[in-house]
Structures are given as C-alpha cells and as structure tokens.
Amino acid sequence: QLITLPERLPLSKVAIKDYAFYEKVRCQIAVTEKQYDEALRIRLGLNWLRSSLGNGFTVLNSIEIAKIYLLKSEADSAKYYLDLTDSLLAGREYAVWAGNGDIEYDYCLSVYYKLKGDVGKAVKYMEKALLKVKQEQYNKLVLKYLYELSVLNSSLGQHSEAYQNLREYFALKDSLDGIGQTSRISIYETENKERQQEEELQLSKINMERQKILTRAIAAGFLLILVFALILYNRFRFSKKQTRIIAAEKEIAEHERQ
Questions:
Q1: Is pLDDT at 6 greater than 70 in this prediction?
Q2: For position 121, what pLDDT does the model report?
Q3: Contact 130, 142 (CB under 8 A)
C-alpha cells in the first residue's frame, strides 16, 4: 500500500516527522526488495530535513545511507557518511541515540573494514557493536552480530573464538525460541479459557431460557387445571342442584297423589 502512495507528500498536509517516517518505510521496502538504488535515492532525498530534525536525525540518516552503500559493496562511499557521523557520535559512550544509531555505527564500520580486507578491525568493531546490543538487550541484533562475529573469527583462523560465538548464538536462539513457544502456549490457554467461559455463558443463557419456558409452561398448565377444576366444580354444583330440584318435585307429586 505504501508503494502506491505519492512519491512525496506536501508538508502542508503532514508533519515533517510523519513525512520522514513515511519515507523511512518506503526505503525499508526498497531494501527488502533489493532495490538499493531506489532506497539510496529516498534516503539521500531526506538530507534536507537535517535543519528541522536536528543531529539525531542526521546521524541516523547518514548511518542508513552508509548501510545501503555497504549492501552495494561501495565501501568508500559508505565511509564518507560514516565519517560525517563521527563527530556527532563523540558522546555515544554515555547515551544511546534514538534508533540506536551508535550501535549501527560500530556495526557499519565492521562491515566497511571487512569489505576493505582488514578483518582484524572488522572483528574489533563487531565486538563493540555486540557489547552495546547486549547492554541494550536487543536480542535479534545480538543473534545477528554473534553469527557475523563467528564468521569473522573463523576467517582469521580463530576457531576457538568462532566456536564460542556460535555456542552463545545457539544458546540465545534456543532460549528465545523457548520464550516464543511459552508465549504461544500461554496465548492458546488464554484463548481456550475465554472460549470455555463464552461457551459456559451461552449454556447458562440457554438453561435460563429453558427454565423460563418451563416455568411458563408449568404456570400455564396449573392455570388450565384450575380452570378445568372450576368448570367441573360448577358442573358438579349445577348437577347437585338439579338433583335436589328433581327430588323435591317428586316429593311434591307423591304428596299430591296421597
């Protein structure tokens, strides 16, 4: 749906931050589809927002541009944008930028030095990036960086370190998978409990309705019996009265004959 929207929304209609977010999503879609030139065009087109959104945005946008250049294996172009962020990230040991640009910075430097053939420096910066994501508990990035660090260590012949990276990777992955499975079971149990409660409520409503129908039927039956009893009683009284009248008439007739 985002791809079908206009290429640029007029800022008179949307806030600058909303526009930046919109372009960010378009860029992510382009990267996912490996349309790196299109993603780069979108990101470079956001540079004019630096004065409005400040240094934080400048860092993150430059990092994202560098990441795209690294995906294109254009290491020198990526390094240009990494250098632009260096002075702004001078205090990154004390604060994490929105979106964790400092983590991405160290990761991008690792990829840069790997492309340039300096695997030693690539390991150094990957270890810095890994330490930061562990501190911030970004487990998905921890998994990603552990795996890439194992590949780097293996390429250096540091098989023991690579083995330790992989052990930590699989331990964390199994732990996260277990948490995910537990969450799914918990959701299933909650849904099942809610479904049972709904069924019990529906059954209770049915039973209450049946009870109402039964009560009304009993009341109607009792009323019919009462009406029938009154009819019989009236007929009995009428019949008894008629019997007394007939008996009296016979008695009078016999008396007259005498």
A1: no
A2: 94
A3: yes
DSSP per residue over the chain, as a string? --TTS-SS--TTTS-HHHHHHHHHHHHHHHHHTT-HHHHHHHHHTTGGGHHHHHHHHHHHHHHHHHHHHHHTT-HHHHHHHHHHHHTTTTTTTT-PPTT-HHHHHHHHHHHHHHHTT-HHHHHHHHHHHHHHHHHHT-HHHHHHHHHHHHHHHHHTT-HHHHHHHHHHHHHHHHHHHHHHHHHHHHHHHHHHHHHHHHHHHHHHHHHHHHHHHHHHHHHHHHHHHHHHHHHHHHHHHHHHHHHHHHHHHHHHHHHHH-
Q: Can you give the pTM of this predicted structure? A: 0.59
Q: Does the pLDDT value for residue 178 go beyond 80?
A: no
| 204: its two tokens | 């209770």
How far is 75 from 68, CA to CA, in rounded Å?
A: 10
Determine the Cα–Cα distance for residues 71 and 36; give it in Å rounded to an integer.
8
pLDDT of 5 over the 50 cut? no
